[in-house]
Write a structure and sequence with these properties.
Structural class: alpha/beta
Mean pLDDT: 89
Low-confidence stretches: 281-287
Oligomer: single chain
Length: 308
Amino acid sequence: PMSAPVDTTADVVEFIPRLPALNKFRLEDFDDLQPAKQFWLVKGLWPRSGVCFVAGPSMSGKSFWLLDQLAKVVLGEPVLGRKSKAAGVAYIAAEGGEGVKNRITALRARTGPLNGAFKFIGQAPDLTDPGDVDDMRAILVEAKDAMAKRGIRLGVVALDTMSAAIPGADENTAKDMSPVLAALQSLAADLGLLIVVVAHTGKDSEKGLRGWSGLLANADGLIMLDSPVDDTRGGSVVKVKDGRSGDAFGFELVVVEIGTDDDGDPVTTCLVETCEPATKSSGSRRADRLSPQQELVLRAISQAIEVG
């Protein structure tokens, strides 16, 4: 009699080798680990890729200062005493674009032509809009390609300011700000460059960077500028991921004339001149004030000195 047809599907499946599932995690032994190689745009200050902040209160001169430092990066000059690797810059003036053009005009008189290594974008992006983020990515790729043809690597993108690039967003909530930070980190990683964001402080400038605490926690670096003391401005390096922080610096804004307007009156702007950091009077900063416990210790020491 005819035998029933044999279903060999199960047998075939049984003989297919089962490959181990890919695992993104990797075990490494303590005794075998080697130092990780660091890649810097400015050694010990700004990494080659990542997101850093320059923040300060109104009138602290943060945009003037950043423009000056970025010109130094283009020329391969030291920034805050640290070596830099010459790289191209794209500056996004999300607010006050016309004023930034004046500052760049004055800066060009000092640096000379930068031969395509410094690009300017005068329109504000909306980092909460994925379409705007895509458009910004496209224009930065265009800048990167244009520089590459001249043998220049686009190394840093400046965004001035954060608040102007997040219209309608609540700066204090993770819900609004986490996607913004993620967009910036994605751009930096995909394009292989550093993004430096100009940001404001809150009502109490002593509390530092305004808004969601996750910005500072996830930033690769933060430079804080202070309110001016007399004519001197300055700040300090607050955070450097895998680098040294704490350095203080000072600068002055020197008024320069860059032309005349339609009425023949002078058009002026400012240039940055390095100087010694200002010395603030005791009690002018929260860090200078003694806590009740410190005051108690100070009184005890004073009494011990009095009685020998």
